[in-house]
């Protein structure tokens, strides 16, 4: 009995929760032969291309069944191929059999002009978003509290919603139009409060108009 009381006190003291996932959620953290970490960790970076496994209607919703980024990277045009020399197929055709539209930053498209902030070379990003599309992310929150959210993005200012465990948590606002999908910058786009630590579900609900690479979650305060 004493051990049970001590454990209960520990959980209260450190606001530990093993899982806040909605009980009906059937998605699983992304994993493949190269990415084996499991749920992405907060504080830290959530790579948007690493949305959950589970398919359409569970891990994501996309208005078209094709991955537009992979489709484009297979094509050859007068100006060249979107599959750049030296880039392995894993990056060029990342998750190509799913509906979420993913591509990567390329030399002649993303680094042949000045950016306010350069993304990483070969940074995976989600693009071609349409209003009403969304992606789910199972995350492991190490420390509860308020977090500042930073992203790297290109193009139009827009508002997207970030939901936590099935409830609207914050509206993300891109502060400026960069003028092109391939002109990149970085900005603080909102804040979110995680009441407890443990496994949580983030849902990013998109509005049309931007390429988005990742969300950085920086702890601010309890």
From TrEMBL:
This is Carbohydrate-binding protein. It comes from the Bacteria. It comes from Flavobacterium nackdongense. Residues 120-216 form the CBM6 domain. GO terms for molecular function: carbohydrate binding. InterPro entries: CBM6, Galactose-bd-like_sf. CDD domains: CBM6_cellulase-like.
């Amino acid at each position: 009995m004493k051990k049970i009381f001590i454990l209960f006190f520990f959980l209260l003291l450190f606001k530990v929760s093993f899982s806040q996932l909605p009980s009906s959620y059937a998605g699983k953290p992304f994993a493949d032969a190269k990415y084996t970490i499991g749920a992405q960790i907060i504080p830290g970076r959530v790579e948007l291309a690493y949305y959950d496994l589970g398919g359409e209607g569970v891990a994501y919703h996309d208005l078209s069944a094709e991955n537009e980024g992979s489709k484009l990277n297979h094509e050859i045009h007068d100006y060249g191929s979107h599959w750049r020399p030296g880039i392995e197929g894993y990056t060029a055709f990342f998750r190509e059999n799913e509906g979420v539209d993913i591509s990567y930053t390329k030399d002649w498209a993303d680094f042949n002009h000045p950016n306010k902030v350069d993304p990483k070379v070969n940074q995976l990003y989600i693009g071609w978003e349409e209003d009403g599309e969304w992606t789910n992310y199972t995350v492991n929150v190490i420390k509860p509290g308020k977090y500042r959210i930073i992203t790297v993005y290109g193009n139009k200012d827009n508002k997207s919603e970030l939901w936590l465990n099935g409830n609207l948590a914050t509206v993300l606002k891109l502060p400026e139009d960069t003028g092109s999908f391939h002109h990149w910058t970085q900005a603080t786009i909102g804040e979110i409060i995680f009441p407890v630590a443990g496994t949580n579900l983030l849902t990013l609900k998109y509005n049309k108009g931007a390429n988005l690479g990742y969300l950085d979650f920086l702890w601010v305060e309890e």
